[in-house]
Amino acid sequence: MTFSIAARCPETGQIGxxxxxxxxxxxxxxxxxxEGCVVFSQARTDPRLxxxxxxxxxxxxxxxxxxxxxxDAAVAPHWRQLGVLPATGEPLHLTGDSCLPHCGGLTxxxxxxxxxxxxxAEVLPAIVHGFETGEGSLAERMLAGLKAGEAxxxxxxxxxSAAVVVLGGEGLRDVDLRVDASSDPLADLGVLLADWLPKxxxxxLRALDPDAAPSSSSVEHSG
Length: 223
Description:
Blueprint: E1 2-8, E2 15-21, E3 32-34, E4 37-43, H1 48-60, H2 63-73, E5 80-86, E6 92-95, E7 104-107, E8 111-116, H3 123-132, H4 138-151, E9 161-167, E10 173-179, H5 185-196, H6 200-208, H7 216-221
Antiparallel strand pairs: 1-2, 1-8, 2-9, 3-4, 4-5, 5-6, 7-8, 9-10
């Protein structure tokens, strides 16, 4: 009962994912990112599979090996929906036979959309199109994709939670935001993202060069 997008930005080198679902706290359960790779375990989710996939990626730099490792490690794989988006190359996905329709995966030029228990068959194409034609940062474009999917049918149950994560250079997350319980989680996530993005460079600088970084007070209260 989830729909998600993993995506990459060839211009910035960023890679990340965004996800929403009709249950609470989806950011604690769905999606993980490491340098060069995003992995998904959703539907009847087992978050432990993320570490399995990322380990296989680190050892092989193969999206197929990462997907195979998660599938092989899964208990009752027929309930799992798995995905891998590498920084370069073809995204891969697998949807188990017991996942609730509408369900499946769809790839774009720089994206992978997954979903199950969707309201219509148009949700996944809308997510990919919304991302691929969107403007702004990687996080903003991924959120635009999810909102497009919501508009085309969403899930069969009301959405309750959402999350967006973007990994930038030097192993730092440029975005890591969650809405754990809300009657309109994508709207609330958009508010958080709009507040965070202007502040993100200052907090990145605090990690890389704290002597040159502004105080958190000046970042939070400027303007």
